[in-house]
Amino acid sequence: MQTTFQQLPGLLRKSCLPLLLIIAIVVSFVGILSQSGQVSEWPMDQSFVTRADLRLYRLPTGWVFQYPRFNWSGGVSASLLIGLYKLVVSPAPETLNWHAKCITTLLFLGSAYSLCLLLIRHWIFQALAFSVIASSALQFAEPSSDIIAAAFFALFMLSVRQGWPRLISSGLLILFGVSKIQLLVCSLGVGAVWYWWDVRENRMRWQIPVGMAFWLMLLMAPGLKLYGIDMVRTVKGLRTFASSYVFMFSPHQFAPSSETLAGSITSWQDVMRSVFPGARTVSDVILRYPKKYLDYLLVAGAYGVFSVLQTMGLMLIPFFRALRLRAFPAVTQLSLRFLGAAAFFSLVPPLLLRFISPRYLAVVFLPLVVLSAAAAGSSQAPRSLKITFLVCSLLTLVLNLALFSERLIRSPLMPFG
User: Fold this and answer.
1) Is residue 1 in a domain?
2) List of residues 6+ apart from 189 with CB closer than 8 A
3) Measured distance CA(142)–CA(333) in Å, rounded
4) pTM score, two decimals?
5) What is the SS3 assignment for 65?
6) What is the 3-state secondary structure (H, E, C) of 274-291?
7) Dihedral sign from CA coordinates of 24, 25, 30, 33
8) Which of 54, 167, 321, 392 has a CA that sits 20 to 30 A from residue 400's CA?
9) Keyword set for this entry (predicted)?
């Protein structure tokens, strides 16, 4: 009995993180099943789940095969993932969204668990970091492609840290990049950082760019063959800008009526004609109405700050404190640079067209929390950093748990998604 009692602390350390993973998955699945299982129709972004169809069938006019289009909200890789799942399971339309969100949850929480296990040494910091990520409710956000992209990015960081073959790591990076059309530039930016580091440390000059080019061609070639330039052409720029403009400015209209911005909230074309007459593209808006566009950028920036605070909680405090103290372990230096590149390339370009919503931050949020915990949990970390992380993570966890149900309910909507 005494031997068993003495083994309890070690058993607790080993079982804590797996137990939290199981609890998080069960709670997330219960939350998903409490919502509608039917996918929102187009133009809602989650509609890519319905359109993802990899069946090959024959019609009187010939064979039909629908490869995902890169300009869909699900991009290529997220649509392929859902399409392959539908080929195997064939879920009913009434339950399709449950299946899609459950897959997303498993990927998101599984990648977070793996990254915590790999980078964080102390079990208490592992548990806190994973709990903050799981309680953020980001796994419920729509479209699910943003969360799938975050999982692919975390798996890419994991593969590089583990020293997997560069062909596999470059494949995960391209899967991240083709999850959504706006993330391709981000993946190339992260790839450039990876190439620079690899040349400096390992003198490997060709494996990374060749591997990335191979996977990019492999994933894009079928769509380019079927659709040509329509595979990547998108007309969503003006619509994205207008919908964000309406969302941010319509609550401040004094006299809601059919002539005002608030009265035209359901028709972005009406908004563009009344507020930006003659503008057919975002470039027209910028060049012909620079003052109004500057107003938009300032308000979008303020909304972005609110989204960062809403999503990150207090976790930015230990992260920047660890940066100031240079407390990040040597093994996390490359991951830290990946995070910096991803934050810049995934958040700054979208700000030109719309405000930064919490789902855009999923790519940054997961590694930021894990790297902060890795710095605070290392044996060389200053005591003040450990206390800062413990306090901020606990307060963020309490805040997340208090808002968890509300975020679950609002997950299909623009304020959270």
Assistant:
1) no
2) 341, 342, 344, 345
3) 32
4) 0.89
5) strand
6) HHCCCCCCHHHHHHHCHH
7) positive
8) 321
9) Membrane, Transmembrane, Transmembrane helix
Interatomic CA distance for residues 334 and 270, integer angstroms: 48
Q: How far is CA 381 from the centre of its chain?
A: 29
Q: Is residue 301 part of a domain?
A: yes
Residues 345, 309: contact at Cβ < 8 Å?
A: no
What local confidence, expressed as pLDDT, does residue 286 receive?
87
The H or E element that residue 59 is part of is strand 56-59
**Is residue 416 in a domain?**
no
Tokens of 88: 């195997």
CA distance 324 to 326: 5
CA distance 323 to 246: 38
> For the chain, how many structural domains are there in total?
1
CB atoms within 10 A of CB 310: 17
Task: Tell which residue, 99, 53, 47, has the closest CA to residue 73.
Answer: 47
Phi, psi (deg, nearest 5) at residue 63? -75, 145
Residues in the chain: 417
Q: Is residue 113 part of a domain?
A: yes
Give me the residue label for tokens 């440390």. Answer: 201
H or E element that contains 223: helix 207-227
**Is the C-alpha dihedral spanning 162, 114, 32, 355 positive or negative?**
negative
Task: Determine the angle formed by the axes of helices 207-227 and 166-177, rounding to 10 degrees.
Answer: 40
Region for residue 64 given its phi and psi (left: phi exceeds 0; alpha: psi -120 to 50; beta: otherwise): beta
Tokens at residue 272, please? 């563009």
198: CB partners within 8 A, 6+ apart: 166, 204, 207, 208
Amino acid at 186: C
147 neighbors 106 (Cβ within 8 angstroms): no
**Average pLDDT for runs of 10 along the chain of length 417:** 49 82 96 87 74 77 78 84 90 90 96 95 94 94 90 96 93 94 92 92 82 94 84 70 79 54 56 81 86 88 86 93 93 94 89 82 94 93 94 95 88 55
- Tokens for 221? 């070639």
Candidates 241, 221, 218; CA nearest to 231 is 221
Nearest to residue 296, comparing CAs of 338, 354, 349? 354
330: number of Cβ within 10 Å: 7
CA angle 159, 163, 168 (to 5 degrees): 50
Instruction: Report yes or no: 71 and 231 within 8 Å, Cβ to Cβ.
Output: yes
Cα 168 to Cα 77, 146, 148, 199, distances in angstroms: 15, 21, 17, 18
pLDDT value of residue 255: 52
